[in-house]
């Protein structure tokens, strides 16, 4: 009985195998019906290169029988045919598709031989960019703009990842238009032969990725070469006595005006400066700042802001004062080539007359100091003159405590 069962089982297995072979042969014959299907070599190493409302596709082909390439997109509603002059080696093909909307695309590429046989498709996808992308690009951020020695120095923040550089356009002091390209690796850019108050225009170049065929630009943005106010370095200051300047009183010296000492009371202590007795008012002292600077503010403090309060708004303290500047003073002290930078009249807050005891309000105002604001229209200067026009009690000399000079250095000489 076991032998019979084994024989029946073997018969069934052989029958199934024979049937299976007939079925596979049937499908194989259907596949070959009408001749063998031939596929040409397909596009290889396909790349998508984004652009502005366009895209470039590139690929390689090796099959020597290819005579044409076909590209489809928009669900095969749009297509492009490229004729191919094939060589014996590997050829590179590139095509630019124009007039595309700004959106994501999928492209199918086929190769075709002389018999019309078509390859298996190669697909490549990518984003096409346009106005929306461009309008949302930003300028590379500027950290600061400084000025020195007829040069503007632009310091940059780090660029964004898709920036490729920035373009600066400006007109220099000679009226010549200049263009500077700033690579993303540069953190500082120098603009030569410019002046304070000049402007420059710049825009930043962007590429969506390294394969992009178009560069996207921001609109031009205008920046001003602005003055950066700082207190000048008094270590460069020196007295510069001209022929018509008065002498000093005793051991008092002009440099006492910028030593920062507000407390010295006795003559020669350094807390104040005074011109020689009976040297006259109006009168002045001349100072070489050691640099050429665009000045913005000048401050002065009366003698007696910490001690000797009785000298505030009194005695030989200047009531009216002028500030003058030049880059080239005449040794004789003539004012012909000096420019008046500003003037100031000291007003006593309490309204009391000179010689009357000072109030807390009077002292506070004196300690704050008195200030001359200098117009941006004023020229750059190296030398300044502090000219006392009138003292509180019409003394024939004047004294001052300290001074402060503010602006931006444009040149060191």
TrEMBL record:
It holds the Pfam family DUF5000. InterPro entries: DUF5000 (IPR032164). PROSITE patterns: PROKAR_LIPOPROTEIN. Residues 258-407 form the DUF5000 domain. This is DUF5000 domain-containing protein. It comes from Sphingobacterium phlebotomi. The lineage of its organism: Bacteria, Pseudomonadati, Bacteroidota, Sphingobacteriia, Sphingobacteriales.
